[in-house]
Amino acid sequence: MKEGSSLPVLARELYRQANSKRDLLVPASNLTVQSNGHTDLIAGETYAVNDIAHSQLAEYLGIPKPYYDRMRCATENVRVPVFDEKCGCPSDNPLFDVSVNALLRAKGDDCRLVRTLDNKARAFLSDSYSVDLDNFDVFQVAAKVIEEQGLGPENVVSAEITERKLYVKVISPKLQATIQPDNVRSGGMLKEPQVIQAGFILTNSEVGLGSLSVQQTVMKLMCTNLWIKEDAYKQRHIGKTLESDDVGTIYRSDTRIADAKARLLKIRDHVESALNEHQFLALAQKMQETAHIRLEGSIEKVVDNSAKRFGLIQSEKEDVLRNLIEGADLTAWGLTNAITQTAQGVKSYDRATELEAIGGKFFTMPSSELREIVTAN
Asked: Are 370 and 306 within 8 A, CB to CB?
């Protein structure tokens, strides 16, 4: 499990963001981009555009992302003459600006939600995207639910806020089981039993990159490997169409906010489900079963199968192979441990969490698919 921020640090940053962010509802034709070493979005005020908003803008305008990126990176070299009405003469403008602005104008009065933070445009979304399921609201409910479960800050084993998502990972020592590895070390000595505990991960995105979700997790105490179960409770960020004043400031809606609060309160039910003893023991049994499924043939080929199946990049594949060899557990259990151990070393918290979810797939996929992965043909 990748280490994140402490709970007090996370709370302070979420509070800061909640008071610093600004949402604007703007007709597409009133938006323009301007390149000057980087891309600015002009929506009344000027905001630097981050990579997430760039991807969403490209999708909205129907521009293939590779071509969009090539234009964006060539603003100094690829320019076209455009008649400037202010000076009454032609001027050279980046192809990127000309193309994007023309397509924005063609969208007319179609309103877009521009989410900003710290003078950056961080998301470019539809006008039905809910702004009432935001990170600080989710965090406040999560804190109450953690307390209701008899847990405390010390049970939040990792938490983080990235440009993409909020993550809160909680483990309960009340639910514990033991996995007995099936293999033996060189010399004939059995590997030690491995204690696991149950928990949950709560994730949320303010920028359109995922629903509000609660998923069951399991952590191995020996090395703090974390697995995330594939099944999840989700609340999509789709609500009533937003309305704004003349400068794009979104009106407060009591009905809309009440609906969001009702959806937030459902977190309680799904945390209780994730911490249900019966469900945890059933998952622990699935994990134990993988300890009896041996890797067949070349382990390099098995790791290659895994990399193709789960989209691992070359460096991740190499780390998984090294972790598998060093762990000396040539079973499906050893392989999923090697993947979740790799998660601890990647730089991106987002990617680390994705790898933990990949590890969790081993316990929910059909046995035929698992056999294909662990067999080197």
From this structure: no
Would you say 129 and 238 are in contact if contact means Cβ atoms under 8 Å apart?
Answer: yes
| Rounded Cα distance, 2 and 4, in Å | 6
Residues ≥6 apart with Cβ < 8 Å to 19 = none
Nearest to 76 by CA among 91, 96, 57, 58: 96
253, with CB counted inside 10 A (0-12, 13-18, 19+), is middle
What is the distance between the alpha carbons of residues 309 and 369, in angstroms, rounded to a whole number?
A: 10
Report the largest interatomic distance among the alpha carbons of the chain, rounded to a whole angstrom.
87
188 confidence band (pLDDT: 50, 70, 90): very low
How confident is the model at residue 24, as a pLDDT? Answer: 92
Residue 260: CB atoms within 10 Å = 21
CA 305 to chain CA centroid, Å, is 24
Residue 160 sits at the vertex; the CA angle it makes with 157 and 165, to the nearest 5 degrees, is 130
pTM above 0.85, yes or no: yes
What's the rounded Cα separation, in Å, for the pair 337 and 306? Answer: 13
Q: Kindly report, residue by residue over 27-60, the tens digit of the pLDDT.
A: 999 999 998 888 999 998 999 999 999 999 999 9
Question: What is the C-alpha separation between 215 and 89, in angstroms, rounded?
Answer: 59
Q: Around 316, how many Cα atoms within 13 Å sit in the side-chain half-sphere?
A: 24
CB 304 within 8 A of CB 267: no
Q: Residue 334: what are its φ and ψ, rounded to 5°? A: -65, -35
Residue 141 backbone phi and psi in degrees, to 5: -65, -40
CB atoms within 10 A of CB 366: 8
CA distance 54 to 273: 38
364: number of Cβ within 10 Å: 12
What would the pLDDT profile of 252-266 be if each residue is shown by its tens digit? 666 767 777 787 888
Q: What is the DSSP track for 130-156? A: -SSS-HHHHHHHHHHHHHHTT--GGGE
Provide the 3-class DSSP secondary structure of residue 181: coil
At residue 89, the 3 state secondary structure works out as strand
Q: Using CA atoms, how far apart are residues 229 and 234, in angstroms rounded to an integer?
A: 13
